């Protein structure tokens, strides 16, 4: 009877170990085709208003996006974003603009987010990540640096 219990425990432990390993997502190569699911016209709510983010399909070694926030039927700000392949990795870069297209950053300055990891349903950059929920839903998480030095992570839930 003790041998049977030991065998059952060993088999259970082996099964548990295998199922845990299967749940760990495989890291994918830093290629645009591995994140092409981001492309599309996305809409959601954030910062007390409506947000739109429109991502192109990969072409020419990059993907590009426009973003706008609308509060009280007026644009609060815009962003232009790109994800591009650089030296066997990806980088996300963006620039912010007021509603009159006057830039927040200087002419040659960008806000850069180096790639950390890509899996089948998530791409993580330093300070921003995209999570695929379904073919028509994704979450974007952005770390926003506060004036007091703390970091607040804002979640954007988008649908298309």
From TrEMBL:
PROSITE patterns linked: PROKAR_LIPOPROTEIN
Any idea where the DUF6265 domain is? 36-143
Check the record and name the InterPro entries matching this protein.
Answer: DUF6265 (IPR046232)
Q: Where is the signal peptide?
A: 1-22
Q: Which Pfam families match?
A: DUF6265
> Any idea which UniProt keywords this protein has?
Signal
Query: Where is coiled-coil annotated?
Result: none
Instruction: Kindly provide the name given to this protein in its UniProt entry.
Output: DUF6265 family protein
What organism does the UniProt record list as the source?
Answer: Flavivirga spongiicola
The upper taxonomy is:
Bacteria, Pseudomonadati, Bacteroidota, Flavobacteriia, Flavobacteriales
